[in-house]
Structures are given as structure tokens and as C-alpha cells.
Write a structure and sequence with these properties.
Layout: H1 6-19, H2 22-33, H3 38-45, H4 69-81, H5 89-95, H6 129-141, H7 147-161, H8 168-180, H9 184-201, H10 224-227, H11 241-253, H12 271-290
């Protein structure tokens, strides 16, 4: 079993200090040195908009100033780390909800701004399960309740129950929803079904490349430790102990010489490599810590 050495942790810290955004430097201090929450919240506030959402490339692949659903996902992760309630977020999400009950993957307000090639605008304004399930799950985790969450959860359940084919990112979004759903028996049954679909489809990077769905790079397949980033995730049951152990060994090994970790999806403009790398480095350290690997 490979573990992260103290020297490797210090190299990761140095990488974050040298290259990461101020938000991620403040997060690192909070998460790994018991630093104060206020600097994290101050840094996060720079990305907030008057509508209650977040924009301004908080999610690095969308460079526009307007609020976006997936950017709110990033904010909810940070607010959770800072033990802070996501005030005003539900009102923003309600304002952009489509008639079908979900929120779109990409909001049209980014049309005239730089964005990753996979941030495609739909010809119709409709919900997407990927961000919607993620958002409801994270709001449940935050202890938020509202009529919008109740209605949107039903949209998610309907879509999840009907899944016969999926892709890695949608599966992760469903997991966030199911990991925090109040109806535990229903969530566990749905997670088992999606896990079988993911495994049968080859949507796992086990070190041999896996099978990428149409339109996806094989490098974007998720590893066992990315599906089950903590031991209590419902996705942990998708993998054997040996598969998780091997995946965590690979995570230790993929630390770069400069101390950081990198995302595996495409870098479409140079700045996003290090904006994502700071985030990826913190996520990698959190996963290793959750599994007792350092």
C-alpha cells in the first residue's frame, strides 16, 4: 500500500502556493492547517453575482461573468468546506429552472464569452440531469430544504429511474444526489443499478484505459477513487478492496514532480491548466486523507 510522504505533501503545498488561485490557496490553509474560514469566504465572494449565483470563471472552463449552474456546484463545495450555509442559491436556481423541472448544463448568458468546447449551448432551454442531480444532492448535504428542492428532486428521481445508458459525468452527478438522498433504500437500489451500468459499460479507468462513450476522451474515464472519493460513498460498493487500493496507489504515483496533480480532460486555453491543477491537487489530497493514505 502506497502512502503520501510528508515530503510529497510539502511539495503539493508548494505547488499550490506557487500556482493556484487565491481561493484555492485559502482553501488549502483551511483544510490542511485549520486556517480561518473568513479568507475562504472573502475569496469566494469575488465570484458571486447579484442574482445569488456564481460566475467569473469560478469553474475554470466557463470564462463569462454570468452565473452558471455548474459554477454554483463549485461554490457549494467550497461553502461546505467552510461550514457555511448557501444563502440565496436556491432562489437563483429557481429563477433558471426549465419547464421540465431541471436546470440546464450551460446557461445561454455565456453565449458571447470564451468557454470550453464542451460547454455547448442547446437549441432549446431544457434541464440536464448532470448539474441538477449534483445541485440537489449538495443542497441536501448542506441541510437546505425548500419547495424547489422537493420538486427538483422528483425530476431527478424520474430521470434516474429511467436511465438505461449514461456517461461518466452524469453517473457522478447521480451519485452526489444518491449519496445524500433522504430515502436511503431507494438511493442504495438506484446506486447499485447505476454502478452495474457503469461497470458493464466499461466507464471506469482501471489502468487499462477502459471504454470511453461516444464524444468522450478515454482520459476522461473516472477511476474507482473518483467515483468513490470517500469510503462512505455508495460507489464504494462498485469496487473490490483491491480495485480501490490499486486506484489509490495510482493516485499517489500520479503526483507530478512539481508537487501538483492535473486534470485529465482537455486544456483548451493555457490558464485553465493551473486553475484546474490547484483544485485537482486539493481534491487528491482530500481523497488520500479520507482513505488514510497520509
Amino acid at each position: 500500500m502506497k502512502t503520501l510522504s510528508e515530503d510529497a505533501f510539502r511539495r503539493a503545498e508548494g505547488f499550490v502556493q506557487r500556482t493556484a488561485r487565491i481561493l484555492d490557496r485559502r482553501r488549502f490553509d483551511l483544510l490542511f492547517h485549520d486556517g480561518p474560514t473568513e479568507p475562504v469566504l472573502t475569496a469566494l465572494a469575488a465570484y458571486r453575482n447579484p442574482d445569488g449565483g456564481y460566475g467569473h470563471a469560478l469553474e475554470p472552463d466557463g470564462r463569462g461573468p454570468g452565473s452558471q449552474p455548474v459554477t454554483v456546484l463549485t461554490a457549494l463545495h467550497v461553502l461546505h468546506e467552510a461550514h457555511t450555509a448557501p444563502d440565496g442559491v436556491v432562489e437563483y436556481l429557481e429563477s433558471i429552472t426549465a419547464e421540465d423541472g431541471g436546470v440546464p448544463f450551460v446557461h445561454p448568458n455565456i453565449r458571447d464569452y470564451p468557454r470550453a468546447p464542451w460547454w455547448q449551448l442547446s437549441d432549446t432551454y431544457e434541464g440536464s440531469l448532470l448539474p441538477t442531480a449534483n445541485l440537489v444532492g449538495l443542497l441536501w448535504r448542506a441541510g437546505v430544504s425548500s419547495p424547489w428542492i422537493d420538486r427538483t428532486a422528483e425530476y431527478c428521481w424520474t430521470r434516474i429511474d429511467a436511465i438505461t445508458a449514461t456517461h461518466p459525468y452524469e453517473a457522478l452527478g447521480c451519485l452526489t444526489f444518491l449519496n445524500h438522498a433522504p430515502d436511503r433504500p431507494r438511493a442504495e437500489a438506484a446506486a447499485a443499478r447505476i454502478g452495474k451500468l457503469v461497470r458493464d459499460s466499461g466507464f471506469v479507468d482501471m489502468g487499462d484505459g477502459g471504454t470511453a462513450p461516444d464524444g468522450y476522451n478515454p482520459a476522461e474515464l473516472h477511476t474507482p477513487h473518483e467515483y468513490a472519493s470517500t469510503p462512505d460513498s455508495l460507489a464504494r460498493a462498485w469496487f473490490t478492496d483491491d480495485e480501490i487500493a490499486t486506484s489509490l496507489d495510482r493516485l499517489v504515483d500520479t503526483q507530478h514532480e512539481d508537487g501538483g496533480w492535473r486534470v485529465r480532460w482537455g486544456i483548451w486555453t493555457p490558464v485553465t491548466e493551473f486553475e484546474w491543477a490547484g483544485w485537482a491537487t486539493i481534491e487528491s489530497l482530500q481523497t488520500l486523507k479520507a482513505y488514510g493514505r497520509w
